[in-house]
Specification:
This protein has 16 helices and eleven strands. The protein has helices spanning 8-17, 22-40, 48-63, 106-113, 156-163, 180-186, 220-230, 248-251, 274-289, 305-320, 339-350, 353-366, 371-392, 418-423, 429-434, 463-476; strands at residues 43-45, 75-79, 117-122, 169-173, 189-192, 213-217, 260-264, 293-297, 398-402, 438-445, 451-457. The chain has an eleven-stranded mixed beta sheet, with helices on both faces. A hairpin with a 5-residue loop joins β10 and β11 (451-457). The protein is globular and about 65 Å long. The two termini are 17 Å apart.
């Protein structure tokens, strides 16, 4: 087995035992990126010199017996939406094409403190608005399992770099499924934590009440390791939860006795691809063989989740993106014009079509005469969706469902059909609206060799239960060990 096929925990053990150096490991991944990313396009930027210098520093400190961080020497890729003083943060937008943050986001600061080697910045849908990573202003990212297909989004680069063997760990963000959906389509593991579990300080905002930072990797053990590193209270984030962070890694192997698994009736209805349904139901049978009790449950308001999300998220986006006016930072038009025209030209030149679409949707929903009819009503439905989950978790410990209704779609297939693109997140947006943790696990493949994902959801702050439940499945199957050989 090559180094790039090993899990982060296996690599960390080799590093700690001195069987490989951080420089050697980093170079292995840089070599892989040089070969594979020409076809995949997962990275926007890779600073090989800086990564190797950091790895060399970690090696020297390890040899001197100095204390090291939890991830010492492990390469980690970061979605280009988290501020980092050492590199530009573009959000895959012309608006921030040359933006250099004056401070580190809390997540990046924690990765640096843990002695991770930040190997590169991954591509994304512009300002995290999209489900295919086709909306980047700079390049399209391709699915490592089929280069004609999309990796999902908006964290498509973060998922594709792990699936393509270009990083053992990566950081993404999830506003409506943007970690879980690409993880499912790329055959890796991706976790969206409870809202507030991971600090959003230094995360360039899309929809502030929905955004959450989370890990992607090849196994639940690796997810637990990375979540343990980035989670925790942050006084710089007013929405950060002041609660202890469990030792996720040490709890993984504790069996979940008497696990009650809920199957959402509404998630196995019309529109679900038969191959996906069969594969997910087979995964549920694995849980039954492990002693879990399976119970059908209902989330009656889930049918309104996509509509609710696409009122709330664009409304928050239109407010958050109002700051990009060509004055303080970001793109400014070169045209000589009046102040108001400068605002308009700067935004028109720098924002892509999907960002403009969502700004307009949000501005309309928040406008006088429509606020009560759309935004306020959406907030009320959001509360009903959360109440559905609260009632469900009185009956079950975890909820199982597909991640997406179909395997990865072809690049360009949904580009001119925004509604169909929005429906790709049908099974994931509810967790964001309710603030719940959710995880995507590989559970099989279509007849054409495309990954299919299983989604598990838990009640707020129950990441430990979620990870233990996911780990039960991964110990009983080997889907997480599969790697694409197409690149």
């Amino acid at each position: 087995m090559s180094r790039i096929e090993q899990t982060a925990n296996e690599l960390l053990q080799l590093l700690n035992q001195g069987e490989i150096s951080a420089v050697e490991l980093t170079q292995n991944y840089l070599d892989r990126i040089a070969v594979a990313d020409r076809q995949i396009g997962a990275f926007l930027r890779v600073d090989a010199d800086a990564a190797l210098a950091r790895a060399a520093d970690i090696d020297s400190r390890r040899q001197a017996g100095q204390p090291l961080g939890k991830l010492a020497g492990l390469p980690v890729a970061v979605k280009d939406v988290l501020c980092d003083t050492d590199t530009k943060t573009t959000c895959a937008s012309r608006m921030l094409e040359n933006f250099r943050p004056p401070y580190d986001s809390t997540v990046v600061a924690k990765l640096k403190a843990a002695d991770a080697v930040l190997i590169g910045r991954t591509n994304m849908d512009e300002f995290a608005m999209g489900g295919s990573t086709e909306n980047s202003a700079f390049q399209i990212t391709r699915n490592p399992w089929d280069l004609d297909r999309a990796p999902g989004g908006s964290s498509g680069g973060a998922a594709a770099c792990v699936a393509g063997g270009m990083a053992p760990l990566s950081i993404g963000t999830d506003t409506g499924g943007s970690i879980r959906q690409p993880a499912g389509l790329c055959g890796v593991v991706g976790l969206k934590p409870t809202y507030g579990r991971v600090s959003r300080f230094g995360l360039v905002a899309f929809a502030s009440s929905l955004d959450q930072v989370g890990p992607l990797a090849n196994s639940t053990e690796d997810i637990a390791l990375l979540l343990e590193t980035i989670a925790g209270h942050d006084p710089q984030d007013s929405t950060s939860l002041d609660v202890p962070v469990p030792e996720y890694t040490s709890a993984l192997d504790q069996p979940l006795e008497g696990l009650r698994l809920g199957i959402v009736r509404e998630h196995f209805a019309e529109g679900l691809d038969p191959e996906v349904e069969t594969t997910v139901r087979e995964a549920i049978k694995v849980y039954e063989s492990l002693g879990a009790t399976v119970k059908e449950i209902s989330l009656p308001h889930s049918k309104y989740a996509v509509a609710t999300y696409y009122v709330i998220a664009p409304s928050e986006a239109s407010s958050n993106l109002a700051r990009y006016d060509g004055v303080h930072y970001g793109h400014r038009t070169a045209e000589d014009c009046s102040l108001v025209e400068m605002y308009c030209r700067s935004r028109a030149e720098a924002f892509g079509p999907e960002v403009k679409r969502r700004i307009m949707l949000g501005a309309y929903a928040l406008s006088a005469g429509y606020y009560d009819a759309y935004y306020l009503k959406a907030l009320k439905v959001r509360r009903l969706i959360r109440q559905d989950f609260d009632a469900a978790f009185e009956q079950v410990d975890l909820i199982a469902s597909p991640v997406t209704a179909e395997p990865a779609f072809k690049i360009g297939e949904l580009a001119n059909d925004p509604l169909s693109m929005y429906l790709v997140d049908l099974y994931t947006v509810s967790a964001n609206l309710a603030g719940l943790p959710g995880i995507s696990l590989p559970c099989g493949f279509s007849k054409t060799g495309l990954p299919i994902g299983l989604q598990l959801q838990a009640k707020p702050l129950a990441e430990e239960t979620l990870l233990r439940g996911a780990h039960m499945y991964q110990k009983a199957t080997d889907w997480q060990t599969k790697r694409s050989d197409r690149v």
